[in-house]
Design brief:
Length: 118
C-alpha cells in the first residue's frame, strides 16, 4: 500500500484543519488505517485508527472529542478532521496502514507538518 499524506499547515489555537491520506496499490478492505504524530525528541504517538471496511474508529485520549477519523472508499482516501486545535497538537502527522490481524503498521506515508500557534 502506498500512502500520501497532505493538508498540514499553520493555524491558530482553536482553529480546524483536515488532513488527507491518499492510498493506492492494494485493495484496502482488509486494512486498518491510522494516523500518528511525532514531535522532535518524542516518540511517535498514536492519534486515531479506523477499519477501512467500516467501523471501529479508535482515538487517543488526547484527541478524543476533537478529532474525527473517516475514509472515503470511492476516493481511496482517509481523513483526519481536527477541531479545537491546541498548541500541543503541533507535530508531524503521518498516515499508516496495517493488515487486520497484524499488530504492525508496515506501510507509511510521508509526514505533513501541523503547527498550532497560541
Amino acid at each position: 500500500v502506498q500512502l500520501q499524506a497532505s493538508g498540514g499547515g499553520l493555524v491558530q489555537a482553536g482553529d480546524s484543519l483536515r488532513l488527507s491520506c491518499a492510498a493506492s496499490g492494494r485493495t484496502l478492505s482488509n486494512y486498518i488505517m491510522g494516523w500518528f504524530r511525532q514531535t522532535p525528541g518524542k516518540e511517535r504517538e498514536f492519534v486515531a485508527s479506523i477499519l477501512w471496511s467500516g467501523g471501529g474508529p479508535s482515538y487517543a485520549d488526547s484527541v478524543k472529542g476533537r478529532f474525527t477519523i473517516s475514509r472515503d472508499n470511492a476516493k481511496n482516501t482517509m481523513y483526519l478532521q481536527m477541531n479545537s486545535l491546541k498548541p500541543e497538537d503541533t507535530a508531524v502527522y503521518s498516515c499508516a496502514a496495517r493488515l487486520r490481524g497484524s499488530s504492525t503498521y508496515n506501510s507509511w506515508g510521508q509526514g505533513t507538518l501541523v503547527t498550532v500557534s497560541s
